[in-house]
């Protein structure tokens, strides 16, 4: 049996644990939130003595674990991963692995010196759709890659919930959006092309989710607002019960009680034009790689659509990845059946299986920290 510890038992960790292989079990839990810790301890049958409200207590003694999943907020990844490496436990850390280049390089150095492996949850590498793109590029069907034009559109629900009202809305707390959201994308594109960045240019800003862009009749909270708005928190949480997985329900209350509390006084009931957000909602990053390939990446947080679009120009043709279809030199492959599959169309499962397998066999995972260095570096440079 492979014993794992989980630090940060929130939304992401819950996804990985929902598809944990049969030969693995949760042996230790760490979370600073007592409700989450108690609920997770019950769900995964972890005794109180193996639950910790802070990482220092967990690392204070040698524990019987084979590996650690770190899924805390972004700024904690560096210190927690370093503690795990020093204590001798292999790590699977959520992206971004670190907040600065110096942090990332310290982690790499510590991992190299100790031989303790660190892998990063860059799930696009495990996603069937993006794997198919990689397969087509590697097959040579479109020839040598010359340039890639990649757009990530973040629709109203995700943008409002996560990057305007939510926990990734402020640079001082969660870092720049290009790092927190697009480290997936820089890693994906470099996976396709290889190479190192010779030049990185970046421009962007907060163009929409600010008070001077609010409709004149907008109220400070959606509950009091009559504007027909795609960002309505009442529609999202009360009517659709969407994006509520992170709302903790204390004993004696219902999810509906918690939603009403949020709408009345919580961060998620605020008008998107009157929050304390400062991360960009638009950013364009251009990269010239040392193999001559040019990448253009666009983060579009004011879009009414959601999803990634990638156009790869090759010396023998073009691949257009439009979200649910792949068009390759006129041939169309349909992947719309993947759209509604849970766990990132199974990618979360493949990732956790790969990690557990690496603990069992000692083989590296598909995404060791070292291969993500350049993708992180581009994000740090783009800011
Ligand atoms: N790979 C992906 O596709 C993907 C998608 C979304 C988020 N993420 C990343 O996953 C990480 C977790 O995101 P999430 O959505 O699960 O967030 P979350 O808020 O649901 O979970 C984070 C957990 O960490 C706990 N925590 C906070 N501070 C702590 C501390 N000091 N010590 C111990 N526990 C602490 C919180 O109580 C919470 O339970 C983030 O780094 C995020 O960027 C990755």
Please describe the structure with a list of short key phrases separated by commas or semicolons:
single chain; 383 residues; alpha/beta; Rossmann fold; Dihydrodipicolinate Reductase, domain 2; 6-stranded parallel sheet; 14 helices; 14 strands; 21% strand; globular; binds nicotinamide-adenine-dinucleotide
In order across it, which strands form the biggest sheet? Answer: 8-9-10-7-11-12-13-14
DSSP helix fraction = 25-40%
Name the poorly predicted regions: none
By DSSP (H or I, 4+ residues per run), the number of helices equals 14
- Which hetero compounds are present in the coordinates? nicotinamide-adenine-dinucleotide
Main beta sheet, described? 8 strands, mixed
How far apart, in Å, are the first and last alpha carbons? 42 Å
Give the quaternary arrangement of the chains: single chain
Order of helices and strands: EHEHEHEHEHEHEHHHEHHEEEEEEHHH
Based on the structure given, which CATH architecture of the largest domain is correct? Answer: 2-Layer Sandwich
Overall mean pLDDT stands at 97
Classify the fold: give the CATH topology of the largest domain: Dihydrodipicolinate Reductase, domain 2
What is the total number of structural domains?
Answer: 3
Q: Which CATH C-level class of the largest domain is it?
A: Alpha Beta
| Helix/strand class | alpha/beta
Assign the CATH superfamily of the largest domain.
Answer: Dihydrodipicolinate Reductase, domain 2
Rg calculated over all Cα atoms = 21 Å
What is the general shape?
A: globular
Outline:
This protein is α/β, with parallel strands linked by helices and 383 residues long. It has helices at residues 11-18, 34-43, 55-59, 77-87, 101-114, 128-139, 156-164, 171-174, 177-193, 233-239, 255-265, 342-345, 347-361, 373-382; strands at 2-7, 24-30, 51-52, 67-70, 91-93, 118-120, 145-153, 197-205, 282-289, 294-300, 307-314, 317-321, 325-328, 331-334. The chain is built from 14 helices and 14 strands.
